């Protein structure tokens, strides 16, 4: 049975409800809820919660607020990534993308509102928390994960450059928010987040390598979005750089490096088990699960 501490779905729902009240413009409220629910695997918030749990966090509300903020930021990035000016993707998570459903203007505002909601969630927690001294570090970690020069905004911006190192692109576009997840979980538990950087970086890059593999050979019916986008738009893609076998080998190495780097903590064994289980989702079903 999954530990209840990892289940942050109700926290995400409760925090989002504070932004989608009757006072919110109806289309924006609907689009925000549509962007967040039903969610995907919730890998990032569960990772944040799991790191906090592994470090014996006694402050579940702060860990939950951090995990929720991570998911809001992730959902915002998906809304913006799907926009016509970027991927022009019409489907996401097996349903029409936000701009396909609500129009481009509402989609832009939905992503913006979710970003603000992420930081407001933590700010409100700080006001009421008895461990408010931990909040500034958590805020700083999340801000670095989404901004420039190394966050997911920078990762998206690399797509606008004439050339980019694929690994650098992956570390920013995807790895940065995974690093934010592991480090925010550690900071919420009151431990040094530094030793948790490599776990997030490796898992994040592995997740993007897996996404490149899915884009190249995945089944759109199974993964819930269009494939072949990278080739169509000339985006950096590790399969095009290394080939399918090379990309799969890289995925395996990244996952093992990440697992080996997990710092010693009381819940290390359970955390490693969780990460291994989550990594099973990385590989397209038609390729089997050997890369996990």
Q: CATH H-level name... which superfamily? A: Farnesyl Diphosphate Synthase
CATH architecture: Orthogonal Bundle
Structural class by SSE content: mainly alpha
Beginning-to-end CA distance, first to last residue = 21 Å
**Total of domains:** 1
Residue runs with pLDDT of under 50 for 5 or more positions: 288-292
Topology-level CATH name? Farnesyl Diphosphate Synthase
Q: Number of helical runs? A: 14
Helix percentage: 55-70%
Largest sheet: 2 strands, antiparallel
Q: Would you mind describing this structure in some detail?
A:
The longest helix is centred in the middle third of the chain and has 25 residues, at 104-128. This protein has helices at residues 9-17, 26-36, 43-54, 60-81, 98-102, 104-128, 135-146, 152-158, 166-188, 197-217, 220-223, 229-233, 238-260, 268-279, and strands at residues 91-92, 95-96. It has a single domain (4-287), classed as Orthogonal Bundle (Farnesyl Diphosphate Synthase). The protein is an all-alpha fold and 292 residues long. It contains 14 helices and 2 strands. Helices cover 65% and strands 1% of the residues.
